[in-house]
User: Fold these one by one.
Assistant:
Number 1:
Amino acid sequence: MAQIDGLPPLSDVIRTHELSAKKSLGQNFLLDLNLTAKIARQAGDLSGCDVLEVGPGPGGLTRGLLAEGARRVLAIEKDARCLPALDEIAQAYPGQLLVINGDALDVDPLAHLTPPIRVAANLPYNVGTELLVRWLTPKAWPPFWQSLTLMFQREVANRIVATPGSKAYGRLAVLAQWRSDPRIVMELPPEAFVPAPKVHSAVVHLDALPTPRFDADPAKLSRVVATAFNQRRKMLRSALKGMAPDIEDRLLAAGLKPTERAEQVPLEGFCALARQF
Ligand code: SAM
């Protein structure tokens, strides 16, 4: 195991602090510090950046981020059992690690961090997509973050980078590709985690674009896309008919065929349709 800092190996940390994994909190821990350092490197140049980490758990990725030179890390962890382990890391990096015991959905990172800010996390599966959608759909753009480097179940990662015409193409692909440049940068087998989940995982890196690729209001785009893909096998005119009585006219005005299915519509088409509302 790599000696990236003077702290004990993660298996010892887990044993000392009795951090048996809780399924309800999506706890699958990474114990290999080589791997967490590699993930931290995928986040880009961290020197001069503050980093938001959601769900540090025993702190493997946190240690990677600090060892890679992050100016400051804000780590939000719901499980209070992890706090003593995280406190040991804070002591090894004085003034550089702020830990908040709470729900990441309730914390405003800008109250604690200074731009430029990067986000890096091995996300809990239960709030992962909700957080991603939030980070992608603020009213104003550019957002508080410069990049997101996030571990998801591989199936979710595939949905984020999917292109029109594929089964994985849907709301996540449209929202992610509208305002950022997402790519899968690492794949991990179940055995990389303790306990091993049933599925493979992947790390997605998203760089925020300076401006969205096409003009659209985030709330309207989000609603149009969610409604269209809710019945993805249906033609757009029936999938979207609840949104407006004159939906066929709006589809035509957006340059879309009412008989098309959501799966075939490129990002530009969804943005044009959102502008019709
Ligand atoms: N980063 C660690 C690692 O890579 O080993 C742990 C990752 S584990 C997949 C997800 C972590 O998120 C757990 O430590 C869990 O307690 C925490 N968590 C779950 N829901 C959360 C929430 N709503 N807000 C903050 N942390 C949460």
Number 2:
Amino acid sequence: MEKNSKIYVAGHNGMVGSAIIRNLKERGYTNIVYRSSKELDLRRQIEVEKFFEDEKPEYVYLAAAKVGGIYANNTYPAEFIYDNLMIETNIIHSAYKNAVKKLLFLGSSCIYPKFAQQPIKEEYLLEGKLEETNEAYAIAKITGIELCKFYRRQYGCDFISAMPTNLYGINDNFDLETSHVMPALIRKFHEAKINNEKEVVMWGTGKPKREFMYVDDLADALNHLMLNYSDEIHVNMGTGEDIEIGELGKIIKEVVGYRGKIVNDLSKPDGTPRKLLDVTKLKDTGYTHKVELREGIERVYEWYLENK
Ligand code: GFB
């Protein structure tokens, strides 16, 4: 990938897409194209085909997706499977048709079986039943991996896939219904502090464990992969460390400076008990994460205060 190669970042307004663009610019890439979802509806084949024919990007980052936390995944499964399947299929097929030199597809650690052995190696894909709350999203993301694999096998396309763990960072979605746990808790603790509320409600038992990666670390790792990896097996992206959700709540509470109580809403689902990724493959390419959890939370809270 040359500094003036034409690079298309699909999903540039999202948390991940915007971090990829920041990292590409830091690395000196100058020819980046993108379209907002208003300008280009990636679910519409005809629009995607026209975009690729007109723009002829050489490199593609497929970071566009319908994403959300446990409640959104569980409540809108038809939207999660339809939108993601259409986006992936349209972009991957158009990338093949227009001779894209390399494409990087982004999935999620929820593709693995609910009770996968920990830490989860890439090879454990499709070895067991999925977690029910995000089955629709997981099926769509597994299909994306398989599309890249089979386009590589049949047509020789250099399409690779990365499976990030739970991500957090600036430009996240802070809507309490559709967001992931990290932005939800930052907002809840902050609002409780400002309004002198006695307690903050956390969903579920607080016992599930999650691994969190700061989005700028992910973006750096993705660009590292784009330059150093070419194979049909997808690559796990994470830090190799996880934490109980209850413990995460305590750290966010401290960072925000909230002094009240935490209570658990047991009517809300826990989701998968644990999904710690085995990141040996990523480390073997020479990459390790830089931002530790507490520092990352402090950065996001600072950003939230300035941008909420
Ligand atoms: O981040 P989260 O929504 O997604 O929830 P998943 C993680 C854990 O935090 C769950 C708990 O056990 C939640 O019950 N939690 C506690 C909360 N309080 C809250 C809260 O206020 N809001 C939220 N959202 N959670 C998603 C998948 O799973 O993660 C997606 O549904 C995707 O498909 C994504 O894989 C990375 O980690 O459970």
